[in-house]
Known about the structure:
The chain has four domains: about 20-285, Jelly Rolls; about 290-325; about 330-425, Phosphorylase Kinase, domain 1, CATH 3.30.200.20; about 435-665, Orthogonal Bundle (Transferase(Phosphotransferase), domain 1), CATH 1.10.510.10. The protein is globular, with a radius of gyration of 31 Å. It contains eleven helices and 30 strands. By secondary structure, it is α+β, with helices and mostly antiparallel strands. The termini are far apart. Strands 1, 3, 4, 7, 14, 15, 16 and 18 form an eight-stranded antiparallel sheet that branches.
Amino acid sequence: xxxxxxxxxxxxxxxxxxxxxxxxxxxxxxxxxxxxxxxxxxxxxxxxxxxxxxxxxxxxxxxxxxxxxxxxxxxxxxxxxxxxxxxxxxxxxxxxxxxxxxxxxxxxxxxxxxxxxxxxxxxxxxxxxxxxxxxxxxxxxxxxxxxxxxxxxxxxxxxxxxxxxxxxxxxxxxxxxxxxxxxxxxxxxxxxxxxxxxxxxxxxxxxxxxxxxxxxxxxxxxxxxxxxxxxxxxxxxxxxxxxxxxxxxxxxxxxxxxxxxxxxxxxxxxxxxxxxxxxxxxxxxxxxxxxxxxxxxxxxxxxxxxxxxxxxxxxxxxxxxxxxxxxxxxxxxxxxxxxxxxxxxxxxxxxxxxxxxxxxxxxxxxxxxxxxxxxxxxxxxxxxxxxxxxxxxxxxxxxxxxxxxxxxxxxxxxxxxxxxxxxxxxxxxxxxxxxxxxxxxxxxxxxxxxxxxxxxxxxxxxxxxxxxxxxxxxxxxxxxxxxxxxxxxxxxxxxxxxxxxxxxxxxxxxxxxxxxxxxxxxxxxxxxxxxxxxxxxxxxxxxxxxxxxxxxxxxxxxxxxxxxxxxxxxxxxxxxxxxxxxxxxxxxxxxxxxxxxxxxxxxxxxxxxxxxxxxxxxxxxxxxxxxxxxxxxxxxxxxxxxxxxxxxxxxxxxxxxxxxxxxxxxxxx
Length: 669
């Protein structure tokens, strides 16, 4: 077969730095030069790059594994131009057989990283999500080859189109798929990307004139001389000095296609190398619509009639069950807002699929989900039937907690009751817990990030204790219950143990709950949680974040005692986490450590309030003025002792550990 000529428009200037690569199919040698992510894989022995299969809600990425310098450093002007580049590739989209809808499409993308964590499927095409779409910090340029109707109210108003996107799925320009046939009239010919065996695409950018040309044509058709899109696009704010080039594709909840790349070439400051068609793998076969066979039309008619009849019967049965048994509302549920339908949550979590499980706690399991009505990502906590907890009382608590709204809290969006199971729906926080970040061997939070997180948790607790209409006692403040959002803001979550009381009243809670190491000593005597017991737990958290050590370790290690010992020896900064590499503000670190000791005093009445804690952290007020080296000396005279006892259903172990006399309580949450 003859060589396929991928011409390049001759407006690029010659630059001192040039770079190019070419893939005519993808074999073992090419695999080593690619970074694959999501569902993408190499199909052997054909040697095609498959970005997605026809599996719903999947994402596939494939990027060249080396960064490319996207600014022309040879320019002697004060401001360098974006480097010129060109690429050509052949792709194939294989929709489901028959009349099933396909989607959503693929993009050629230039991004600052080959990994795009948190990206969503559907219309986001594996590049963005609902929270970062149109965010200037994305630094992503993309040309989309979309097969599904438009995203939001953007210019992408019809499917089967080509669009140019900057940091967003809203295209700055979009055109239906077509090419200009060669001839004197240069007539425009439309074609469908899903029906074509394969599609050839050329993307060319002149860094000096800022002209972007995008051309498409059916496979084996020579490159048209007139591009489909030709537009001045300023990429200076998009490009960083080093960028990665590649592809991204996605499928949706109800629409799914396979997306393949057959060949790809790229050049910086030059024409992309020609792709030899004879060396490319054959386009994947596409199943024919059964309706195209005459002998099947009668059978299809009979099957359609039978299917219609069965659907009518099924609809009648569904309506009957809906109005008689399914999800019957109880009286108390009629007064509670934010109730989700159980079937919507089944769709959002793919039937509570195991692969979407993101956490397991004492009350149940947490799944990542996407609400079908809005496309928003949520965390769905499934609490299994618990006869120990009255549903009516639990619902009353949630009805109140559901109205909590603060930037440093994980907001409860609503719930669903299905028989005796309670399902809670929260905001989805992508970066996981502070615990997972703090003890991650491959990631070290710097001091500014840690200090910002601590101040965020303090602001959230201040809102719960003093600024909302009621006092909310969290009762389980710890690093694993603090989630970190994309901007590293702290979000206090897991209100499964929280209790409400009016201002100027004392909580009547009488059950001892919490986590060993964070529990205030008075809980072991009175079993009554208070805002002071939350302050104690926050004090332990302050020490934990600075030291990078858990509150209780193996052997006889207790974090609070260890900090006191170093304070009395005049070497308080020796407790600082070695992962900080001595890069921190000593004044801030010393403030946090001493404040942590203030908050973890034995006597609840001696601890500061969260309002005072917040003022200390913001340096609005100085810490109390006394000799920190002799802080709490009287506690050092306590002797170590222990006893075991059996009190009702809980097993108690008391160990005098110098300062805190931590009471370890083994309970089942």
